[in-house]
Amino acid sequence: MANAERVLNRTERLFALVLLLQNKPNLSSRELARHFDVSRRTIFRDLRALTESGVPLTYAEGGGYEILDGYQLPPLMLSAREAATLLIGAEFIKLQPDPSLRKDADGVALKIQQVLPDEVAAYVVRLRDATVLDPYWLHTSEATEDEQGRWYELSEAVARQRTTMLDYYVASRDEVTRRKVDPLGLVYYSDHWNLIAFDHLRQDIRNFRLDQIRWMRVLQDVFKKPEGFDLAKHLDERGTGPQNQRIVLRFAGQAYKWARKAVPAKVEEERDRDDGVKEVTFYFENLDYVARWLHRYGTQVEVVEPPALRDKMRDHAASLSALYA
Fold first, then answer.
1. d(Cα 84, Cα 166) in Å, to the nearest integer?
2. Which residue of 157, 174, 241, 300 shows the fewest CB atoms closer than 10 Å?
């Protein structure tokens, strides 16, 4: 059994080694050993095994190993666990509001199932039939025909660095504005997709909700990313931006246990008070969004600051009171 396990692990490593060298050539034996957490001697033995099996390995002039262009791996091979992970991931994508994403997810799932061995395919089908991601999802979408496919178009614009024109609805002013933007990344928050882009009108990097885009057109103009821009770093630093406001909340009981998963920003501070209340601090720019998010927790949450957010919560409570008076 131990010998069989070692063979399986090595087979997986050889497969991963080919994928790695095809996507990131010119890696040295030391770098490969560090990546796979094995000795350089093991890497040399693996490289020799690949060469003997017909993989066209070569050593680049600049140092490091690479695979000659044109080599293709055999048909896709997935373990039951890997196949299940991909197909359940496709089911998550089908919960998205964009119908084009759901259609693509169905196509991916079908292709994966077609290449699986019968035993693995049967396993995946049993798992899929016994897994429900959202029992109350009605499999409907309010997206118009013009709105469909927006995520895919913007992902192409991000990847190809193409400037894009938007007609964007600004809820705070109840108006639609024309924007020329350079798409830099796509981010999914708790319930919607957002485009992070350089806004030519504001001369700054801004956030645009995809469901607030009324019309868009990807142009042929190619833009350059702002020097040193990193999407993850940008999102982490948003709390220090001038448009953000300091938000302090106090959660009672077990409410924060559930709210913590949906906080729309990096939590700067968490403090346990003597009365059992959790005080939380973070920075965010959209107070309307925060107010809508907090309503679900009712009297289990109190807004400490800013005053503008307290006003929004009070006005909403007054509206509810008037409705049910």
1. 38
2. 174
The distance between the two most distant Cα atoms of the chain, rounded to a whole number of Å, is 82
Report the alpha-carbon distance of residue 273 to residue 302 in Å, rounded. Answer: 14
C-alpha of 95 from chain center: 14
Buried b (16+ CB within 10 A) or exposed e, 227-266: eeeeeeebbeebbeeeebbebbbbbbeebbeebeeebebe
Side chain identity at 235, as an amino acid letter? L
pLDDT in tens, 169-199: 987 788 999 999 999 998 876 567 889 999 9
| DSSP conformational letter for 249 | E
CA nearest to 273, candidates 255, 304, 294, 252: 252
85 pLDDT more than 90: no
pLDDT at res. 289: 84
* Type of residue at 179: R
